[in-house]
Amino acid sequence: MADRAIEAREQKPLLRYSNVAVTFHWLAVALVLFQIWLGLSFADLAEGPQRANLFIWHRTVGAVILLLVLARLTYRLLNPPPPYPPELPRWERVAGTWNHRLFYLLLIAMPIGGFVAVSGLTPRPTITLLGGIAIPKLPGISKELGELAAAVHSAAAWLLIALIALHAAAALKHQFFDRNRASGRMPPFKSPADEPVVIGQGARRQAG
């Protein structure tokens, strides 16, 4: 069965993601980069107030990322993205599509895995977030399972960093080296030909 997500279609003008999708994208970028910085910052700190404060930030940002990604995924399922232009080779369309799918998988699984890890490793009945918000930890999570979840969470973080580097490199390659029209699908990147671009997704979708 054909994977419709990697299909390409002739389009004039070029179809881009909607403003809603663009907002979701760049909010996720900002939060994920901040989250990576938080994780790397507190990982090597000794136990103390500074580490505890950074860890509260890390837990809170993780919860926000989970909610944002679920909202973004819901929007994407209800509003399929615009098709690729045919100038983008099939292998790059396949790679880009699966890169996005892995992003969704990791950005949903990692906060859940972190929740499992903290639930198994904290002696308290609740987990504290910013603003003094306390949520109950998951019941029945052993310390051993918490340690395993923490190890998987850490390994997944490095995989996420690798995927981000790959995605960024591909975007820059399309924009500045290949000068491929596909770069214009996600503002503020632009089609190298400076051609007209219209929204090809959501309620304001226009015919290409």
Brief characterization of the structure:
This protein has 208 residues and is mainly α.
Mean pLDDT across every amino acid position: 92
| N/C terminus separation | 25 Å
What's the gyration radius in Å? 20 Å
Order of helices and strands: EHHHEEHE
How many helices? The count is 4
Strand portion = 5-15%
Poorly predicted parts: none
Task: Decide which structural class fits the backbone.
Answer: mainly alpha
Query: What sort of overall outline do the alpha carbons produce when their principal axes are compared?
Result: elongated
Strand line-up across the major sheet:
1-4
Proportion of helical residues = 55-70%
What distinguishing features does this structure have?
208 residues, mainly alpha, two-stranded parallel ribbon, two-stranded antiparallel ribbon, 6% strand
Give an overview of the whole structure:
- This protein has 4 helices and 4 strands.
- It is mainly alpha-helical and 208 residues long.
- The strands form 2 sheets. A two-stranded parallel sheet has the order 1-4. Strands 2-3 form a two-stranded antiparallel ribbon.
- The two termini are 25 Å apart.
- The model has no long low-confidence stretch (mean pLDDT 92).
